[in-house]
Specification:
Length: 469
């Protein structure tokens, strides 16, 4: 082998000779003063001119939600502003022998309101949620899909576990009745990517499609990636967000043995208490949140209503531990800093942070530390609140519904509270908008999501202005 390499080094092959010939010809033409042709520079559709292609601006034009506080965005947002709780005793599975017996279930959801009977039977609950939220978001956007280029429309969805209840049911069926009695749609029902696949299929979206499974950061990272897809001019419209439906015996038991969940079963509505000194764990929940993202050019061309602009994305990894956040907050801090920098802003430009705020002892103190390290003195002038204080932790779907909360804060000039904040924690000494909503002109806001595995994702939302600031 070494001899062969040596021979190739002493005797150039045909490819090398051809390359040398091209280089000599190029050098010769430069010496003679001949102008070389430059590759064409790609510009944005509908634009002409020279130079580097401008980065697409991305705006939010539609929203859809299925949550423990309601089956649409209006009910969800009203509940948040009023400080209502969507937490109650778990009914979807038996938790009588588990340390956590409460959850944030979606109440009154009827799949046939959004799907025909056959479609619904062939979908897991997490896919049903997403299809419902996506349909609501498209309707809210005022977009007529039949008039759009389906090749330029895509789906990017985050979820953490996929069809976990169906996995549990399938296992029990196999154990009790035998493997050949399982649902023939078992495999396509449980796969995490099937929610995005079903939305693409039902809405006829033929462009960029993907699924992100970065645990609790999944939906936020899906929105981050959807923003990048539009920026790169690979799509005009993206259906982006997250969905989760993992309230099942095996799922809750798994979190219980980790001691990640609350045991405050006697007062469900007061159990989720982010940043409070007596917090003792998060509450498992379910639901879906979807945004319609468009390039600004596309939205303006069709005369769309614009709720807000997403101007910054940041994704980082702690590279520290499989479940615990880095104790110095550096991973979360990097994601926040990169998102703010990507938006062309400085930390002091941020008015509001929708915190990850899980109500676990470690997460809330580390997130607070990360905010203080990044923002310095400005940290004490920020409004910070946790949506999870009222709806619990939607796992991979959290970032989708929290993105809706941030968008509504910008559009309505109101920040929802962090409820159940009663006992100050010396390690969590910032302004968490305790217990009562606050009117505030929100020009720029940050949305945080931090997942198991140390995977972090952050988004910067801004009040829309015709000219980029």
């Amino acid at each position: 082998m070494r001899q062969a390499r040596a021979e190739r080094g002493n005797h150039p092959d045909a490819v090398t000779t051809a390359v040398d010939k091209q280089i000599n010809e190029l050098l010769g033409s430069i010496v003679k003063g001949e102008k070389q042709k430059k590759p064409a520079t790609r510009t944005r559709p509908g634009k002409s001119g020279k130079g580097k292609r401008e980065r697409q601006r991305v705006v939010v034009t539609g929203m859809g939600a299925v949550t423990p506080l309601g089956l649409n965005v209006d009910d969800f947002w009203r509940g948040l502003v009023e400080g209502k709780s969507g937490i109650a005793r778990t009914t979807l599975c038996d938790t009588s022998d588990l340390s956590c017996q409460i959850s944030g279930e979606v109440k009154g959801f009827e799949p046939r309101n959004y799907l025909d009977h056959k479609e619904a039977r062939r979908m897991a609950r997490f896919s049903q949620f997403l299809v419902a939220a996506a349909k609501m978001a498209v309707e809210d956007s005022g977009m007529n899909l039949s008039r759009e280029d389906a090749d330029r429309m895509g789906v990017l969805v985050g979820n953490g576990i996929g069809g976990l209840p169906d996995v549990e049911d399938g296992f029990l069926t196999m154990q009790e009745k035998g493997g050949m009695r399982m649902n023939p749609f078992f495999m396509p029902i449980i796969l995490p990517n099937m929610a995005a696949g079903q939305v693409s299929l039902i809405l006829g979206l033929k462009g960029f499609s993907s699924t992100i499974t970065t645990a609790c950061a999944a939906a936020t990272q899906a929105i981050c990636d959807a923003v990048e897809v539009i920026r790169l001019n690979k799509a005009d419209v993206m259906v982006a967000g997250g969905t989760e439906a993992a309230i099942t015996r095996i799922g809750i038991a798994g979190f219980c043995v980790m001691r990640a969940l609350t045991s405050r079963n006697d007062e469900p509505a007061r159990a989720s208490r982010p940043f409070d000194a007596r917090r003792d764990g998060f509450i498992p929940s379910e639901g879906a949140g979807v945004l319609i993202l468009e390039s600004l050019e596309h939205a303006q061309r069709r005369g769309a209503r614009i709720y807000a602009e997403i101007s910054g994305v940041g994704v980082s990894s702690d590279a520290y531990h499989v479940t615990a956040p880095d104790s110095d907050g550096s991973g979360a801090m990097r994601a926040m800093r990169w998102a703010i920098g990507d938006a062309g802003l400085k930390p002091e430009d941020i008015d509001y942070i929708n915190a990850h705020g899980t109500s676990t002892p470690l997460n809330d103190s580390v997130e607070t530390l990360a905010i203080k390290r990044l923002f310095g003195d400005h940290a004490y002038h920020l409004a910070i609140s946790s949506t999870k204080s009222m709806i619990g932790h939607l796992l991979g779907a959290s970032g989708g519904v929290e993105a809706i909360a941030v968008t509504k804060s910008i559009a309505e000039g109101v920040i929802h509270p962090t409820v159940n904040y009663e006992f100050p924690d010396p390690d969590c000494d910032l302004d968490y908008v305790p217990n009562v909503a606050r009117k505030k002109d929100v020009r720029a806001a940050l949305s945080n999501s931090f997942g198991f595995g140390g995977q972090n994702a952050c988004l910067v939302f801004r009040k829309f202005e015709e000219k980029a600031a």
